């Protein structure tokens, strides 16, 4: 029994630095990707400065209707950090053709639209023309930050277009999306649980092994002193 306790302590001691290493590693990864993200955001900002012509306080043009579809995703699930696609349909019931210049979207807190969580990437088109009484569909692929907590957020999507040389914009979507944790990545907790599980299995194996050894030893002694017993066993 003493042996077992010593063994258990040794196992814990062995396992604890391992756990800490696992923790540190995931921490380090987090930080490096956080830096990447910040750098990424800065480069996004510089891109957005070119897009300032598409970033104005615009109204929608009469006769332009929009629809928005999340293909094969009626629950509007958006895995954090992964690309999600939605389709933006534009119908031109106006008198002149419409030139589509871009699509942009932002993520907001559902209970306060003034609180902007993230500006999503702008998708630019080279004035894609839609003649009168026709419609066109544009795919918009976006990824919300991998650091968003899972839960409900509001997505507001705009399509910016040009009618007779004047820019307009329409809101094609203003509603809830459900941000979910992206699969595949091991969290710190699961690493901890897996290590703990392996440690317990190892301990169980060692215990079983020591029991078998003890029993065979006892049996050997018994059969040594009482050879008759051997016949019964
Ligand atoms: C945007 O336009 C509306 C009216 O079209 C105006 O009331 C509002 O103040 C404008 N907002 C900004 C930020 O310019
Ligand atoms: C975009 O297309 C519309 C309609 O086809 C046209 O009136 C407008 O001049 C074009 N704008 C640019 C910047 O090319
Ligand atoms: C998002 O874009 C808006 C303008 O479209 C800008 O005013 C705001 O500062 C941007 N926010 C972030 C966090 O980049
Ligand atoms: C989106 O909807 C919310 C609430 O329904 C509203 O407060 C907000 O002004 C809307 N945003 C736009 C751009 O229409």
Automatic annotation (TrEMBL):
* Membrane-spanning parts: 191-209
Enumerate the subcellular locations listed in this protein's record, separating them with semicolons.
Answer: Endoplasmic reticulum membrane
Major location, coarse class?
Answer: endoplasmic reticulum
Q: In terms of domain of life, where is this protein from?
A: Eukaryota
Would you tell me the Gene Ontology cellular component terms? Answer: endoplasmic reticulum membrane
Q: According to its record, how does it sit in the membrane?
A: Single-pass type I membrane protein
What keywords were assigned to this record? Calcium, Endoplasmic reticulum, Membrane, Signal, Transmembrane, Transmembrane helix
- Annotated signal sequence is 1-24
Family designation: Belongs to the TRAP-alpha family.
Domain remark in the UniProt entry: Shows a remarkable charge distribution with the N-terminus being highly negatively charged, and the cytoplasmic C-terminus positively charged.
General function of this protein? TRAP proteins are part of a complex whose function is to bind calcium to the ER membrane and thereby regulate the retention of ER resident proteins. May be involved in the recycling of the translocation apparatus after completion of the translocation process or may function as a membrane-bound chaperone facilitating folding of translocated proteins.
Subunit info?
Heterotetramer of TRAP-alpha, TRAP-beta, TRAP-delta and TRAP-gamma.
Q: What name does the UniProt record give this protein?
A: Translocon-associated protein subunit alpha
Q: Which organism is it from?
A: Capsella rubella
High-level lineage: Eukaryota, Viridiplantae, Streptophyta, Embryophyta, Tracheophyta
């Amino acid at each position: 029994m003493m042996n077992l306790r010593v063994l258990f302590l040794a196992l814990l001691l062995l396992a604890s630095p391992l756990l800490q290493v696992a923790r540190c590693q995931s921490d380090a990864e987090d930080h490096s990707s956080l830096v990447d993200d910040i750098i990424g955001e800065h480069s996004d900002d510089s891109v957005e400065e070119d897009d300032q012509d598409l970033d104005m306080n615009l109204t929608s043009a009469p006769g332009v209707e929009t629809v928005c579809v999340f293909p094969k995703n009626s629950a509007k699930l958006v895995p954090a950090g992964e690309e999600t696609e939605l389709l933006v349909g534009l119908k031109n019931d106006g008198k002149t053709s419409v030139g589509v210049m871009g699509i942009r979207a932002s993520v907001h807190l559902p209970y306060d639209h003034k609180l902007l969580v993230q500006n999503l990437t702008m998708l630019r088109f080279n004035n894609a023309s839609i003649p009168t009484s026709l419609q066109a569909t544009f795919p918009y692929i976006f990824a919300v930050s991998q650091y968003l907590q899972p839960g409900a957020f509001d997505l507001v999507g705009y399509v910016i277009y040009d009618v007779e040389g004047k820019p307009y914009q329409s809101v094609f979507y203003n509603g809830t999306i459900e941000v979910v944790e992206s699969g595949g990545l091991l969290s710190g907790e699961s690493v901890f649980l897996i290590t703990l599980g392996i440690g317990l299995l190892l301990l169980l194996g060692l215990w079983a092994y020591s029991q078998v050894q003890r029993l065979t030893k006892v049996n050997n002694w018994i059969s040594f002193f009482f050879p008759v017993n051997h016949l019964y066993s």
